[in-house]
UniProtKB/TrEMBL annotation:
InterPro entries tied to this protein: FecR_N, Ferrdict_sens_TM
Protein name as annotated: FecR family protein
Gene3D superfamilies associated with the record: 2.60.120.1440
Boundaries of every FecR N-terminal domain copy: 6-46
Pfam families: DUF4880
Source taxonomy: Bacteria, Pseudomonadati, Pseudomonadota, Betaproteobacteria, Burkholderiales
Annotated GO MF terms: sigma factor antagonist activity
Length: 326
C-alpha cells in the first residue's frame, strides 16, 4: 500500500499530465479530505516545492514520485518523463499544486423528507439543500466550487469579485458570480436551473474518450427570472416563473405545466411511499400537464384530487403509488 507521500506525488503527476481535467480535480479534492494524513503529506510536498533547489528535498520527492508510478500501465513513459525533466516539472508543479489546493471543504447528505435549510458557508454564502440530495463544496484562492450529483439546491451567493462560484451537477457546469440560484437535478438525465437574481452561465459538457477531460457542447446565459431546462443533451428556456423552484423551502411545491413524471419525482421526495409515473414523461401531446401548488403537509389529499385536475389515474400499490394518463 502506498504511503500518503507517495500518493501525494502520484496526484501531482496526474494533475500535471491532465491540468484541464475537472473530474480529476474533483477526485483530488476528495482524496485530500479523506484522511488528515493526506493533508499532512500535501503540506510536505508543498514545502518540497518551495525548497526545490534543495538536493535533499528534491531527491526525497522524486523518489516518492518514482515509487508511486511503478504500478501504472504507463510506467516506462512516466519514468522517462521524470528522468528528463524532474527539476523543471517539480518547480512548475509547486505553483500549480498551490492553485489546486482547497482551502476549505464540506459535504452534506440529506434524507427523504428532511431538507437542510439556512446552511451558512465561510464566505458568507447561504444554501438550502432539498431532501434526498448530496452536496460537496470547496474553496480555493481563485474559485468557490460545489458539486450536486442529485437533488435540489438553492444558493444565495455572497459577492466576491475574485472568486466566482462554479456549480457542477453531472455534465452541467454553472458559473455564478453572485446572486440567488436554484438548481434541481430531479432525475439523472435532466436538470432545471432557475435564477432569481444575478447573472449565471450554464455549460453542457461531454466526457472525452477514456474520461480524459470534457468537451463543451453548449453554453447558455441566464438573467434574473429565467429558467433553463437541460435534458438528454438539449437545453431550452422555459416560460415558467423562476420562483417556482424556491417554493419548497417554505413548504410548498409549485407545478407549472408539469408532466406526470415531474410531479411524481417531486412528490417522492416527501411522500410516505415513492410516487412513479411509468408512462408520464410528457413527450406525447396527449400526456396531461398540470398547474397546481400543494403544501407538503397536504400531499395525500393532492394525490387523491389529481384525477379532477386532468386525465389522470392514481393507482395505490403496496410499495409505491403510480400516476397514469387515462
Amino acid at each position: 500500500m502506498k504511503t500518503p507521500l507517495e500518493q501525494a506525488a502520484q496526484w501531482f503527476m496526474r494533475l500535471q499530465q491532465s491540468p484541464d481535467d475537472d473530474s480529476l480535480q474533483a477526485r483530488f479534492e476528495r482524496w485530500i479530505w479523506q484522511d488528515p494524513a493526506h493533508a499532512t503529506a500535501y503540506r510536505e510536498v508543498c514545502h518540497a516545492w518551495d525548497a526545490f533547489d534543495s538536493d535533499q528535498a528534491l531527491g526525497r520527492l522524486a523518489s516518492a514520485a518514482t515509487r508511486a508510478s511503478t504500478n501504472q500501465a504507463q510506467r516506462r513513459r512516466t519514468l522517462k518523463h521524470l528522468s528528463i525533466g524532474a527539476v523543471s516539472i517539480l518547480a512548475v508543479g509547486g505553483l500549480a499544486w498551490q492553485r489546486q489546493r482547497p482551502d476549505w471543504h464540506g459535504q452534506w447528505q440529506t434524507a427523504q423528507a428532511a431538507p437542510l435549510l439556512g446552511q451558512a458557508l465561510p464566505d458568507g454564502s447561504v444554501f438550502d439543500l432539498g431532501p434526498d440530495a448530496s452536496l460537496q463544496a470547496s474553496f480555493r484562492p481563485d474559485l468557490r466550487s460545489a458539486e450536486l450529483p442529485q437533488g435540489a439546491l438553492i444558493l444565495a451567493a455572497a459577492a466576491d469579485g475574485q472568486r466566482p462560484w462554479r456549480l457542477r451537477s453531472r455534465n452541467v457546469d454553472i458559473q455564478l458570480q453572485d446572486g440567488r440560484i436554484a438548481i434541481d437535478r430531479w432525475r439523472p438525465e435532466q436538470i432545471r436551473i432557475s435564477l432569481e437574481h444575478g447573472q449565471a452561465t450554464a455549460t453542457l459538457n461531454e466526457p472525452r474518450w477514456l474520461g480524459l477531460g470534457r468537451i463543451e457542447r453548449g453554453q447558455w446565459p441566464l438573467r434574473a427570472g429565467q429558467v433553463l431546462d437541460i435534458q438528454a443533451g438539449q437545453a431550452r428556456y422555459l416560460d415558467i416563473p423562476a420562483a417556482d423552484a424556491y417554493a419548497w423551502r417554505v413548504g410548498v411545491l409549485v407545478f407549472s405545466n408539469a408532466s406526470l413524471e415531474e410531479i411524481a419525482a417531486q412528490l417522492s421526495r416527501y411522500a410516505a411511499l415513492p410516487v412513479r409515473a411509468p408512462l408520464g414523461n410528457g413527450t406525447s401531446p396527449r400526456q396531461p400537464r398540470i398547474a397546481a401548488s400543494v403544501r407538503l403537509t397536504d400531499i395525500p389529499q393532492f394525490l387523491a384530487s389529481l384525477p379532477t385536475l386532468g386525465n389522470i389515474r392514481v393507482r395505490s400499490l403496496p410499495d409505491h403509488i403510480e400516476l397514469l394518463p387515462v
